[in-house]
C-alpha cells in the first residue's frame, strides 16, 4: 500500500498567477501577509503578484526578511511578524528559502513556541493547529518547496527541518513567467537541484509506481532543457519545461523522499554556507558513483530518459555512463565540480562526514546503505574530483 499527497490545488502554466483571484475569494481574505526576497521586491519581480492583490482590494503586509539558507533567527522573526500582522492568508513568493519561511510561519504563527521547538532532530513539539491558509509561488525552477511540507533551517554546522503535513500549501501557483529573469547561475543551481530531486526520488527505497512515473518525466524534461534555460534564458519553451519539470520532480520527491545527496549537502550549507542547489549539483555524481550497483535497473531507465545510448551495453556500463553524464551536465551549466573549488580544506572532510552521518531521515532512503566510512569516501572523492567507477 502507498499514499500520494499534494497541495489542495496546483496551478501551472503561463498566466496561472491570475488564479490568485479565485484563491482570495475562496479563502475570503481581506488581509494578506506577503513574504518575499528583498531583491525580488527591488527588481519588481513581485509586481505581477501585487497587481493581482490590488485588483482584489485586499490589505497587504509585505515582509522581505528572507535570507538564503535561513537560520533559526530568521524563521522566528518571520513567525513573530505573522503573529503581529494577523492576516487571513500568507503568500510566499521566491526561491526555496522564501517558501520554506512562509509555510513555517503560516503554521507556527498559530501554534505555541518557536522554530527550534519543532525541528526534526532536536525539537520536542508537534504542530496541533493547521495554521493560516497559504499560497506558495516559486520564482525559480528547482526547489519544489511549493509542493512539500518541509522547511529547512541552517544551524551552526549543519541543517535541520520542520516537517509536518500542516506545512503543505493550500495552493501552489507555478507560473514560468516569474522565472524569465533568473540569472544563469541561479537557473543552473536550481535546475540541477530539481534534477537531483527526480533522480533521488526514483532510486529511493520508498519509491512507488506513481512517484517513478513522475520522476522519469521530470528527468527527461530537465535534462533536455536545462542547458538552454541557463545559457538562453529568454527561451520561453525551455523556461516553461524547467518550471514544469521542477514541479513534477517536487511532487515525486515529496512522496518518495530524497536520500544521500541531500543528506550530505546539508553539512555543506551549514558549515560553509554553500547554496543548497550548488551543494546538490556538486555531490550528485559522486553519490551515484557509489550507490549505482544497488539500483542497476533504475540507472538504465535514467539513462534512457537522459537520451544516452544503451543498446549492446551492460547495466554496469550504462550506470557508469549515467554518472559521467551527470557530471558533464553540471560542468555544462557552469557549476563547480569539486569541493576544493570552495573555501574547504581536506582536513574539513572528517567534520563533514561526522555531520552528514547524522542525517538519518534522509540517508535511510538510500538504496545502498551509507555509513561513516562511505560518507567519508564520497566527500573525499568530491574534494579531489575523482569518480572511482570511471
UniProtKB/TrEMBL annotation:
Keywords annotated in UniProt: NAD, Oxidoreductase
UniProt GO MF annotations: oxidoreductase activity
Keyword match Repeat: no
Domain Fe-containing alcohol dehydrogenase-like C-terminal: 187-383
Residue stretches making up the Alcohol dehydrogenase iron-type/glycerol dehydrogenase GldA domain: 7-176
Top-rank EC class of the record's enzyme: oxidoreductase
EC numbers on record: 1.1.1.-
Family: Belongs to the iron-containing alcohol dehydrogenase family.
PANTHER family: ALCOHOL DEHYDROGENASE, ALCOHOL DEHYDROGENASE 4
Name of the molecule in the record: Iron-containing alcohol dehydrogenase
Organism of provenance: Ornithinibacillus salinisoli
Amino acid at each position: 500500500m502507498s499514499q500520494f499527497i499534494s497541495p489542495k490545488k496546483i496551478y501551472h502554466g503561463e498566466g496561472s498567477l491570475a488564479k490568485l483571484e479565485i484563491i482570495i475569494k475562496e479563502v475570503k481574505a481581506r488581509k494578506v501577509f506577503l513574504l518575499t526576497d528583498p531583491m525580488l521586491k527591488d527588481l519588481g519581480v513581485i509586481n505581477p503578484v501585487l497587481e493581482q492583490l490590488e485588483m482584489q482590494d485586499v490589505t497587504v503586509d509585505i515582509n522581505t526578511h528572507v535570507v538564503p539558507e535561513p537560520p533559526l533567527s530568521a524563521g522566528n522573526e518571520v513567525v513573530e511578524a505573522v503573529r503581529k500582522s494577523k492576516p487571513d492568508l500568507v503568500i510566499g513568493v521566491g526561491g526555496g528559502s522564501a517558501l520554506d519561511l512562509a509555510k513555517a510561519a503560516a503554521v507556527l504563527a498559530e501554534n505555541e513556541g518557536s522554530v527550534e521547538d519543532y525541528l526534526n532532530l532536536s525539537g520536542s513539539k508537534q504542530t496541533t493547529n493547521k495554521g493560516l491558509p497559504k499560497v506558495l509561488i516559486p520564482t525559480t525552477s528547482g526547489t519544489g518547496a511549493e509542493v512539500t511540507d518541509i522547511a529547512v533551517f541552517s544551524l551552526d554546522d549543519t541543517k535541520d527541518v520542520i516537517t509536518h503535513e500542516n506545512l503543505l500549501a493550500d495552493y501552489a501557483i507555478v507560473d514560468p513567467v516569474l522565472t524569465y529573469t533568473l540569472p544563469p547561475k541561479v537557473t543552473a543551481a536550481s535546475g540541477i537541484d530539481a534534477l537531483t530531486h527526480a533522480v533521488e526520488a526514483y532510486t529511493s527505497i520508498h519509491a512507488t509506481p506513481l512517484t517513478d512515473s513522475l520522476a522519469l518525466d521530470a528527468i527527461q524534461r530537465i535534462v533536455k532543457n536545462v542547458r538552454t534555460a541557463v545559457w538562453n534564458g529568454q527561451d520561453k519553451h525551455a523556461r516553461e519545461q524547467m518550471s514544469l519539470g521542477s514541479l513534477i520532480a517536487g511532487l515525486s520527491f515529496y512522496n518518495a523522499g530524497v536520500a544521500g545527496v541531500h543528506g550530505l549537502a546539508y553539512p555543506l550549507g551549514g558549515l560553509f554556507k554553500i547554496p543548497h542547489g550548488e551543494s546538490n549539483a556538486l555531490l550528485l555524481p559522486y553519490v551515484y558513483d557509489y550507490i549505482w550497483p544497488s539500483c542497476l535497473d533504475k540507472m538504465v531507465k535514467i539513462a534512457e530518459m537522459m537520451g544516452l545510448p544503451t543498446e549492446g551495453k551492460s547495466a554496469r556500463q550504462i550506470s557508469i555512463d549515467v554518472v559521467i553524464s551527470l557530471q558533464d551536465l553540471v560542468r555544462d551549466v557552469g557549476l563547480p565540480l569539486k569541493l576544493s573549488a570552495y573555501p574547504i580544506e581536506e582536513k574539513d572532510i572528517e567534520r563533514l562526514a561526522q555531520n552528514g552521518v547524522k542525517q538519518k531521515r534522509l540517508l535511510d532512503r538510500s538504496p545502498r546503505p551509507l555509513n561513516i566510512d562511505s560518507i567519508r569516501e564520497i566527500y573525499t572523492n568530491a574534494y579531489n574530483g575523482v569518480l572511482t567507477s570511471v
